[in-house]
Specification:
Strand content of chain B: 15-25%
Shape of chain A: globular
Helix content of chain B: 25-40%
Largest sheet of chain B: 6 strands, mixed
Distance between the termini of chain A: 12 Å
Structural class of chain B: alpha/beta
Oligomer: heterodimer
Number of helices of chain B: 19
Largest sheet of chain A: 2 strands, antiparallel
Distance between the termini of chain B: 46 Å
Amino acid sequence: MTTATGHADSGRFANFARDHITYGIFALITFYFIGFAPHFASLATAGAVLRITAIVSVMAIGMTFVIVCGEIDLSVGSLASFAGMIVAMLYERDVPTFVAPAIVLVMGAFIGAVSGLLVTKIRIPSFLVTLGMLSIFSGLALTVTDTRPVPILDDTFSALFWNGSFVGVQAPICWTLALTALGYYLLHQMPFGRRIFATGGNPIAARFSGVRTDRTKIAAFVISGVTASLAGMMLAARSTAGNPSLGAGLELDVIAAVIIGGTSLFGGYGSIVGSVVGAIFIGILGFGLLVMGLSTSIQEVIKGAIIILAVSVNRR
Amino acid sequence: MERIEKSFGENQVLIDVNFVVNAGETHALLGENGAGKSTLMKVLIGVYAADGGRIVLDGEDVTALSLRERLDRGIAMIFQELSVLPNRTVAENLFILREPHAFGWRVDARRMIADAQSLIDRYGFGLRASARVGDLGFAQRQMVEILKALSRGAKLLVMDEPTSSLTVREEETLFATVDQLKASGIGIVYISHRMADVLRLSDRISIAKDGRLIGPLLPSETSIAHIASLMSRSPESQGKLPPTERALIKRSATVRAGPPALLVSGLGTARKLSDIAFDIEAGEIVGLAGLVGSGRSTLAKAIFGLVPDATGAISVAGQTVQTANVSSAVAAKVGFVPEDRRLEGLVANRSLAENFALTNLTGLSHARGFGPMATQKIASLFARYRSDLSLLCRGPSQTAQELSGGNQQKVVFAKWLATNPKLLILDEPTSGVDINAKRDMRQLIKQMAAQGVGVLLISSELEELIELCDRTLVMAEGRITRSLERVDDEASLRALLQTDAARQVEIRSEERAA
C-alpha cells in the first residue's frame, strides 16, 4: 500500500480507495455493530476484541512473511496447540519460569526450519509439507499426554502471556503491539524484508540478483514457527493449562486475516499492519455476531461469506 | 504460395513472396530473426490472413480457408513446443478425441493400440503404441507429434527448428524420419538456423530477407559461406547506428594493468559446456558469438554461479569465485544482465527503487544489513543513474512492470552498475529495445569498459559484436572454437559460426563412433 504514494495526484485517491477497500467494508461492519448490537460501543468491548484477536494477530504477523514469499503455512494452529502442551509439561517438570518459554520458541523456530528445508531443498510444495505438519503436530499434541490437559500453576507465566498488564495495557495487546512493530520493521524496513518481497514477487529475478531465495523462504517459515509457538503459549496462559486442541482450526482465521489485510496469496505483495487489521476485523465480526445473539453455527456461515466478500474485492 | 503480401500497420513484413513445395520434397527456409519466415509460415497455416496473393494446395485454392479447414485439408505445423500429453500412451495421443469406440461409448483400447501400431509401422517409425509418452525421448515425442499430423491426413508438414531441443543422436533419428516422410510423398518445409543440417536434408533452399524470399537454391550448387552472405541484411534495413569513434573510447594502457577481469579455465557442465577457458582484461569487451543452442547463455550463467553442476576454475579481478554459487560471484563484483529481463531481470510488481537496491542490500542499508534500508542513499543513487542512463520513469516508487522494455533494461543495468562491478556479463542486452535505447545501451557498454570494467557480451546481432568488441569468441556445441581479434563483416562471422557448428557436430559423432 506504500506504493500508492508515488502515483500522480489525480489517481491518488482512486488508488487509495482501491487499495483500502477492505478497510471500508471493515468500517461499515463495525459501525453496523455499534449501531445495532447491544452495548457494542464500549471500551470494554474494544479491549475484549483486541484480546481475542491477539492470538490470531500474532500468528498472522508470522504468516505474512510466509505468504509474501509465495508459500503457505497450514501448520500454525496445530503447532500452537503443541507449543501450549509442551510449555505446560515443562512447568510440570519444574523448568524455571523464563526458561520454558525460551525452549518452546526455539522449538517453534526449529519446526519452522524443518518445514522450510522440506519446501526449498526437497521441493515439496509448502501446501503439502505444512498440511503434513498440521497432522503431525495435532497428533503429537494429543499423544504427549494421552489427550489429558496439563494445568499450569506458574502465575508469572500466566501474567506474562495473558493476565498481566504493562503500563496499563493488557499483556496480549502488548504482545500484538510489540510484534506488529517488530514485524513491520523486519518486513518493511530491513534488507531482509526486501529479500522476502523479491523472492515472492519473482524468485528467478531475485536469484539472478544474488538473493538466496531458499534461505529467505526458510527464514520466513522460522518466523511463522516462532509466532505460532508464541501464540500457543498465549492460549495456554489464557486457560492456565496446556490443552491439546486449543489451536485447532486457527490456521484458517490466520490465513483469512492475512489475505483480508491485502497480502497477495501469490506472493510479492503484502503488509504487516494489514494482516493485524485483518485479524481485528475477523475478531470484531465474531464478537459482534455473538453479542447480537446469533448461534455459533450461523456465525461461522456469516463470517465465511464476509471473508469471501472482503477477499474478492481485494484481489491482486 | 503465390505473390504473398502481409503488413502489420505500416510495416510491410512480406513482399511479393512466392514459395513452392512439391510432394515428396524438403524445402528449407532460412533467415535471420525478423526476416519474415515465421510470418510466412503463419500465413501458410492460416494464423494470419495474407493481404494479397493466394495459397494453393493440390490445385485447390485454400487462401480463404480457416486454420482448422486447412488442417483438415492437410497443412500441419510441428511447433518447437510439443503439444503431446506426457502421461498418456502413444496411441492415446495419436487418437485423442477420435478414439475408436466399442458399443457406442466405451473406448476400444485394443483396437486403438492396433491402429496406432499399424500407422507407426507404415511410416517405419520405431515406436511402441502402448508406451507412455513421458518415458520417450524428445525426438520420439516429436515423432508422435508428426504421426498425429499424418494420421489426420497431412500432406504438407512445416517443421520449425525441429532440432533445437534434440541431442546429436536424436537429430540423426529426426533426419531419418524426415527422409522417410519424403519417401512417402509428404512435402516438408524445414526451418532451421543450422545451415549444415539444411544442406544435408533439403532438396531446395529459400532464404528470407527483409520480407522477400531469395532462391530457391539447390544445395549442390551453394555453400555455407554463400548462404551466409545472402542472409546478411543491408545496413539500411537494420537502422544501423552511426559509427562512433571507437578510438576515443578504446581502453587506455593504464586501465589494462592489474589482474584480468575474468579468468576461466576448465569450466564445464554435465550436459552443455566442455572445457571452457578464456580471459577478459580489465576494460576489455569480449563478445561471445554462436548459433542458438551453442551454449552462450549457459556459459554466462555458469560464470555467474547459476548452473548447479558447473565445475572448473573462475576468478574475477584476482578473486576466486566458487562455481555454482551466485553469492560468491556477486561478492567478487560480477554483474549479470540476463537475457529475459521480465522473467530474470526484474521483480515486476515491486518499485524501481526496490529493484535497484536488490543487488546491494547490505551496502544500501544501515549497520551493514542489520539496520533499516538507507532510503536517502538509495534515492540519491537512483537519481544519479536515472539521469546517467536517461531512464524515463515517473519516479523511484513506480513499479517496474509499468516501464517500456528499453527502460526496464536500463533499470537492470543500473542495479548492477550501482554495485561497481569488475565484470559485467551481458546476455543479449539490446534485444527487443527500441533504437534509441539500443544506442544508449551501446554507449553505456563502451563507457563501462573505458572505466576499467571487463565486459562479456553475448549478442545475436553480429553487427553489435563487430561494433563493440575488442575480441570475439566463437562458441559451438558448448565449446569455444576460436578467438577472433578482428572481425571484418557479418557474413564472414556468420559463415564461421556455421562451419564451426557443423564441425563440432561431426567431431562429436566421431567421438561416439570411436
